[in-house]
UniProtKB/TrEMBL annotation:
Classification via Pfam families: Pkinase
Taxonomic classification: Eukaryota, Viridiplantae, Streptophyta, Embryophyta, Tracheophyta
Record domain Protein kinase: where: 1-123
Protein name: Protein kinase domain-containing protein
Keywords: ATP-binding, Nucleotide-binding
Entry GO MF terms: ATP binding; protein kinase activity
Transmembrane annotation, as ranges: none
Amino acid sequence: MDPQTTHVVGTLGYLAPEHTRTRKATTSTDLFAFGAFLLEVACGRRPIEPQGETGDLMLVDLVFSFWQRGEILEIRDPKLGTDFVAKEVELVLKLGLLCSHSDPTARPSMRQVVQYLEGDVPLSDLSALGLTASGLTFAHGEGFDDFVTSYPSSMDKAHTHSSSIAESLLSGGR
């Protein structure tokens, strides 16, 4: 946030929903951005991909749908080919989802993320950790919609809403 203008500054695909309301960066908002980064790296895709008239493709939605079907590894970056460790890619994808939780208190701490990544602590099943479609849904009407609809995307057009589960989590473009 720019302290002189009180405008939220940052790339919307990485901004936590509470950051747009409170305008305060916290360790939890940093974790949200880290989750978007993890998903971007593991999938080889940006957090938000404009799809023209049909709205925007939200990476977190896509990864979540693959996880729900039990096919989370299928969303991995195709450039990996067969040269990857399945457990590691799965862990990164699941951590990306967990860090993208709409409830900041449900996100792990960075210490926990490091413990998961280093293999010191096993990551429980995501459903046991509270990751559900509703966990990726941000309650509209708390100021985020107004902010997002007026925020220009990188394509110099106003962002329009689609029916994506996590649209309010990751809105706008780079």
